[in-house]
Amino acid sequence: MTFSKILATALATLLVATSSLRAADQPNSTEYSNESTQRHFNIGYGFYLNALGAINTVPNDGFKTAQGFTAEYGFALFVPFNDKGNYGFGIDIGAASISYDTKQLRTDSSSLIHHEDYSITSIFPHFYFSGFVIGVQAGLSPSGTLTIVDPKGGSSNVAPTDLKPFIMPRLGMELPLAESTWGRFNFNLQAAYAAMGIYSKVDHYPFYKQSPVDQNAVAPVPVTLSLGVSFIFKVPIYY
Fold first, then answer.
1. CA separation, residue 238 to residues 41, 43, 53 (Å)
2. Which of 114, 117, 155, 164 is the most exposed place for a label (fewest CB within 10 A)?
């Protein structure tokens, strides 16, 4: 799925969900006929869909990096700490792909460009504070593919044992755009940083298998920026 298609899907979802929430929140003459019974926000579940940009923050000498764009999506669960739901704990579970380019700089025309693409099962437990989120994203069961873009083409898969779980502190915004008694539609803007790297050892990075590795070499440490939407359906209790 291209970045433009991801963005178009997110915008279409935004329009539909916003209209639905506004319609759902219109007063109903039969609703709450018993004034002693109140509807409280107890738990929420739904989905998220984000466009995801990434770049390697630590290219070595003789290398440079360029951003790539992919997507992340999955299931969202939210447990509020109060009736209004403006504080709480959430967990997002889904799939994500982290992609960027790495180029080895040479004086001749044999420079190699590697397109790096890593897929993970993403688990993101986090705290929510009136539109802001902070937590730690775990990327489990990682897999990767490196494709040589220039000059000869070809690709190679990264052995699962060469990678380690992605541990990424993550923070940002989850701002409500529309809300009713039935649900909440959010705009997401969040950043994450793979502070511990993604390779189990430096020399497991396939780029270094083709080039000598000096003592100061480091394996990739990606940073990501996500932009998208989420919808949380409210499950109430009455008392």
1. 9, 13, 42
2. 155
Residues in the chain predicted with pLDDT less than 70, given as ranges, are 1-41, 106-111, 150-154, 207-216, 237-239
222-238/183-193 β-pairing: antiparallel
Q: Retrieve residue 223's tokens.
A: 């940073």
The pTM of the whole model exceeds 0.90: no
Structure confidence at residue 158 (pLDDT):
85
Short-list 61, 8, 17, 16, CA closest to 179: 17
Q: Which of 239, 238, 231 is nearest to 90 (CA)?
A: 231
CA 208 distance to own-chain centroid = 28
212-228 burial: b if 16+ Cβ within 10 Å, else e = eeeeebebbbbbbbbbb
**Residue 228 near residue 74 (C-beta atoms within 8 A):** no
Please name which of 54, 2, 4, 17 lies closest in space to residue 177, comparing C-alpha atoms.
17
DSSP state of 83: T
DSSP of 202-221, one letter per residue?
Answer: GGGSHHHHHS---TT-----
SS3 49: strand
Check residue 189 and report its DSSP letter. Answer: E
What's the pLDDT score for residue 164? 92
